[in-house]
Fold each of these.
Amino acid sequence: MSKFWSPFVSTLVPYVPGEQPKLTKLIKLNTNENPYGPSPKAIAAMRAILNDDLRLYPDPNSDLLKQAVAAYYGVQRNQVFLGNGSDEVLAHVFNALFRHGRPLLFPDISYSFYPVYCGLYDIEFDAIALDEQFQIRVEDYAKPNGGIIFPNPNAPTGCLLALEAVEQMLKSNPDSVVVVDEAYIDFGGETAIGLVDRYPNLLVTQTLSKSRSLAGLRVGLAVGHPDLIEALERVKNSFNSYPLDRLAIVGATAAFEDREYFESTCQRVIDSRDVLVKQLEAKGFEVLPSAANFIFARHPQHDAAGLAAKLREQGVIVRHFKQERIAQFLRISIGTPEHNQALVDGLGDL
Ligand code: PMP
C-alpha cells in the first residue's frame, strides 16, 4: 500500500491465474489450454500480415471478425461484441450490465474471476450453493437479483446444465440479464446462442482460448440482443478503442472459418477425455461428469494437495483449489494421449 494509490486499490483481491511455468519440460494440465495448436490457416493468415501495416492502428470495431462470428452463429453483426479475451468481455459485462444495486447471483463453485470483478466494480453478490452432486439448481435462482452469471459447462466442475434448464432460468428472470459463460461449450454442450433472438435478457460469452486453441492471442466474444451489445460497446469505447490487434482480428477470423480443423481437434480432446476418465475411475477416483476440456476428480483415500505435489515431482502439473467443498478435488486439463498417460503413470499405484 502506498499513499499514491487510489484508496479502493488496497481493497482489491486480484484473480490468481494458473501457473505458467518457466520450465518447459513440465506437462501442463493446469490451465485448460488446448493440447493441439491453432488452425494452420490461422497461423498462415497471421504470418501473411506481418508487415509494415503494423504501423497502422487496427479496425476499432474488428468488423472482419464480427462478420465471421455472426455468419458462424447465424446472427447479425450488431449482436456480436469482441474483447481481449473473454476475461475482458466479462469485465465490461460486469461494469455495463450488473451494477444495479441488487446482488448478482452465481454458483458458489464457479469461475473465481466473478467475485474479483464484483470487487473491482463494487457489485454485491450472492453465491448460490451447487447441490450435493455439484449441479446448478435453477429454482435457487428465482429470487430478486441484479443479474445472473454462470459458466456452462461449469468451471471447475465441468458439469453441463441442459439447454432447457438455461431457458427455464431465462424465463424465471425476465427482468435480469442472464449471462451464460460458454468458455468450454464446444467440448460437449449445445450453445445457448440459438436462444438470443427469443430472450432479450440473454448474453452468451465465448472464447477462442480453448476450443480454437488461441489462448495466447487473447480473443473473446459475446452474443446477445443489440441493446445489450450497445451497452458493452459504450463501456469498451470509454476504456480502450483497440482491444483486438491486427493479428488477433485476422487470426481469429481464419480460426472461425476453419470449421473442419476445429471439429476434428475438439473431437480428439473429447475422445481423450473419455479414455482418461475410465483410467482414473479404474484407480478409484470419483470423476464428475464433464462436458469440458478438463475433468474434476477426487480420490476417497488420497489427499488432493498431496496428489498434486506428487504429480509435480513427476513433471505433470494440475490445478488444486484450496477452497471449501472442493479442496479434495483436482482439476485436470485434457492433454494429448501421451500427456494423459504421463499423468496416469505419475499417479502410480494408489
Ligand atoms: N470463463 C471461464 C469459465 C474460464 O475458465 C476462463 C479461462 N480462465 C475464461 C472465462 C477466460 O478465458 P479467456 O480470457 O482466455 O477468454
Amino acid sequence: MRIILFGPPGAGKGTHAQILSRKWQVPHLAAGDLLRSHIRELTEVGKKVKAILERGELVPDVLINELIAVELRKPVARRGFILDGYPRTLGQADALDEFLKGKNENLDVALYFKTSVDVVIDRLTGRRFCPECGANYHIRNIPPKVSGKCDRCGASLVERSDDRPETVRRRLEVYEKDTAPLLNYYQVKGFLEEVPGDFDVDELQAVLAKVLERHGVRESIR
Ligand code: AMP
C-alpha cells in the first residue's frame, strides 16, 4: 500500500495513519514527527526548523523532501508506506511524483480528510502527545488508559507547543494557502478520495477500509 493522508491540522491523519500502519504492517511516515524528533535530538536540521514549527509555518520543501526521500529509500518502505502530512505543497507533491517515477512505483490513493473548523479546534486543544514514541491522544476522544501517561511506553504526555490558539490559526491559514491546492492536484491525477474527517475514529476506519478496498489496495510485495 502506498497512500498519502492530507487535510487540515487536527483532521485525524496521525491517529488513522497509526492504526493503518499496524493493520497493514507498513511504515507510518509522519513529516511532523520526523521534524520533531530532529528538534528533540538537537540535530542541525532540528536547530534550523525549531522556530519555523513554533510559528506554525512550513519548513522549506528541499529540506522535507530530502528527509522523506531518506525514509522512502529504507528497505522497510519497500512494502509500502503511509505518508502523513507529506506532501504539503505542490512542490513537495511534484518531488514525490518524481521520486516514485524513478522507482517505477505509483500511489494507490491520496486520502483527503475533509474536516470542519469547529472539530479541528476541539481536537487540537484536547490533543496530547507522547514526546518519547510519538503516540497521539485526546483528553476525551482517545484518552490514555492511565491519565497523562502513554499506553505504549508509559512516558508523560504533553501538549504540543504549536497547538496554542494563535499558532493553530496560523497553521490553518498556511494549510488553506499551501496545502489545499493538493486537492485539485490529486483529483486531476485520479488519486483523490475525500473522507469525512469529522467522523469518530471507528466510523472513519470503517470508511477507510471500504475506500482502500475499492482502490484495490493490497499489501505491497515484500
Ligand atoms: P504536523 O505534525 O503534521 O501537524 O506538523 C507540524 C509542523 O511541522 C507543521 O506545522 C510544519 O511546521 C512542519 N511540517 C510538517 N510537515 C511538513 C511538510 N510536509 N512541509 C513543511 N513543513 C512541515
